Amino acid sequence: LLLANEVVDARRLGAVTARVTVAVDSEVTIAAAAAGGVREVVIDVNVGLPRCGCLPGDAGRLADLARSRGLSVRGVMGYEGHAAGLDDRATRARLTEDAMQQLLGAHADVGGELISAGATGTYDCNVWATEIQAGSYVLMDTAYARLGLPFRQALCLLATVISVSPGYAVADCGLKALGMDHGNPLIDAAQVLFCSDEHVTFVPEHTVRVGERIRVWPAHVDPTVAYHEWIHVVTGDEVVETWPVDLRGW
User: Fold this and answer.
1) Among 82, 88, 92, 134, which is most buried by a count of CB atoms within 10 Å?
2) Total of domains in the chain
3) Cα distance between residue 127 and residue 145, in whole Å
4) To 5 degrees, how large is the angle CA 208–CA 211–CA 217?
5) Residue 186: left (phi > 0), alpha (psi -120 to 50), or beta?
6) 97: Cβ–Cβ under 8 A, 6 or more apart, which residues?
7) Is 249 part of a structural domain of the chain?
């Protein structure tokens, strides 16, 4: 298991019986991994997205520090998230290459077998990583769907129309049920006007009635899944399995 994130208390990770690798990018997170009983780490490198990760030039020093604390350094990771969602593939490819050149430079200083990077939006143009961290492709969302990737959307919310007015309708699915940072969801054969806490207001292309079920397609699948306790697997209208979202709130 790769936890592609820094933690400041790694004791629960150290207690897991499976092989666990955790990302580190500072003296503090290295110390936390060692103190928590984690045995393997990757050096997280900032390759352009202003989030976690050390400067590329500092990766070698941190790797040496981790090894001095008894940790096995498997390699490096970097996330070209600033490129992954861009509409133009050529721009995605160019920014991905720029990011990976930084990561390869850090890897030369760090060593190890792992160069972990990539995303659903860049999986096909990242030819430098030895491990691709794409995840959204499994279920997809409307933000990635607009990029023309060869993956189908598999996750939607089944909402109920609860009010119909001249020119618009309202269903019981809103901000508390949807990841909204990538924009409004989509509804088949309808224009979504806006979402509020408990509602989505939309203009249907055909008549809808109170009590009718509609499919609402989220713009960002990751936080949407985290809002829910169960995923119902369906074939047509038949529920064939129900899966718990078992790491929700972990």
Assistant:
1) 92
2) 2
3) 22
4) 70
5) beta
6) 125, 128
7) no
Please answer whether residues 174 and 198 qualify as being in contact, where contact means their C-beta atoms are separated by less than 8 angstroms.
yes
- Same-domain check for residues 162 and 194: yes
The two three-digit tokens of residue 70, written as one number: 């008894």
Mean pLDDT of the chain: 96
pLDDT beyond 90 at 247: no
Residues 162 and 238 in one domain: yes
Domain span at residue 189 reads 157-244
Q: Indicate if 76 and 23 belong to the same structural domain.
A: yes
The answer to whether position 226 is within a domain reads yes
**CA atoms of 102 and 147, how far apart (whole Å):** 25
The residue among 16 and 105 whose pLDDT is bigger is: 105
Residue 146 contacts residue 87 (beta carbons within 8 Å):
yes
Q: Is residue 79 part of a domain?
A: yes
Q: Cα separations (Å) of 209 from 166, 188, 236?
A: 12, 15, 21
Phi, psi of 222 (to 5 degrees): -60, -60
- Whether residues 179 and 124 share a domain: the answer is no
pLDDT at position 248: 74
Same domain assignment for residues 41 and 107: yes
